[in-house]
Amino acid sequence: MSLKLKPISKQVIVVTGASSGIGLVTARMAAERGACVVLAARNAEVLQELEDEICQRGGSAIAVETDVAQRDQVEALARAALAKYGRIDTWVNNAGLSIVGRLRDIPEEDLRQLFDINFWGLVYGSLTAAEYLQREGGAIVNLGSIASDMSIPLQGMYAATKHAVKGFTDALRMELEEEDLPISLTLIKPASIDTPFPQHARNYLPREPKLPDPAYPPEEVARAILYAAEHKCRDINVGGAGKMMTTAAAVMPRLSDFFGERILMQQQQRNEPARDTVGALAGPGRDGQVRGSHPGIVMNSSLYTRAVTHPVATGALLASVGLATAALIGSLRPRH
Question: CB atoms < 10 A from the CB of 296, how many?
Fold first, then answer.
């Protein structure tokens, strides 16, 4: 069956984890581009503030308090979207968080709770969305991570959930394509992103957690998500540094392990005592913020991701640069 994704301005987009970070900026960006946005998260107060903000700016949004770890609440989210707008065009499974600490120090109940949110929440969202989209067509966008392709010490169970997300997403995509259903399924794999992600993590370290350098702005991930809502694509890496790390992990695994043991262990800890160690694992966190407080290198953008999502423009730019370079070299040649 042929698939034609609508422009963002004509879409109804469901965004889970919309109360902070990537989800929040994605919801705002989609609304600014004319989409009707269905906002989902556990923090009902912040969601309502976001709905009011979008509507006051001339957009359209509905806030639906949702714990994605509960399948009945995810299904209720879909019903609320259909009741308000009559359809769903894109479903973004963004909700997720982490636990920071050595795997042997983390209680089993926390490990299971992390899987309930990061993995099962995404599974419930994907299957619920697919049930509707198989009739009408549209896109499912799942948030993985560079940790879908490599392991990260001190975030071992987070990496395990993201490995599982990749395995599930790839298998579901193949099944949907084999059935010739009009559904695009994309996995977004961000590197370190400057959001409140470290502060929302359950922390078992004596020091305050942080992400490895460099970090990228959450707007880059939001652009990649909305690109996937309009263009059928398999996966998108956000952040050239992350792509380099996952490539190195695949080609030189022992060297990647050495880097993790010697560098990543230290780069995930600030030189200050831990503050809020509870995070948002068991309930809503301190939401409403897009950016975090990354203390290291924060890039302005990801040229790698821009090139991947704009291949024609990038090719034209490289061609023009090549022609200009050739002309310059020609002008510098001595004339006889």
Answer: 14
